[in-house]
Amino acid sequence: MLSSLAFTFAHAVETSASPEAVWRLYSDVATWPTWDDAVERLTLDGPFEPGAVGTFKLHGQDPLEFRLLEVQPQRGFMDETSIPGGLVRFRHRIEPLDGGRVRLTHAVEIEAPAPVAEQIGALITAGVPATMTRLAELAEEGTP
Fold first, then answer.
1. Residue 48 has what DSSP assignment?
2. pTM of this prediction?
């Protein structure tokens, strides 16, 4: 059993996009490669709800299976992926702010031996700021 987090990371951006516009992009997994350059392909077996399982393929990597753990429409979701010797949890939050702005936060937690977690964490999070900027831009444009 895994005992502690060996890696954590969070990044936030603000946008003028509505929570509904962001949610449309999050919940339609076919759009993910349009806002996340690392994702080559993503599928989900069933509706975007807790317990749903899917696969994602990052460029140059073998496909991995993920599971949606939490889903709160227009508020965010959390998914989990098993990796050799550990788990990766990715939380995506949508937080309405004053003045019609919205804060988007992507947070990563990795439970694995520290050297593995740090190496994987660095790879996973390197593109997060650019990914979030692109997500916000697409949501602002209303483009799926």
1. S
2. 0.91
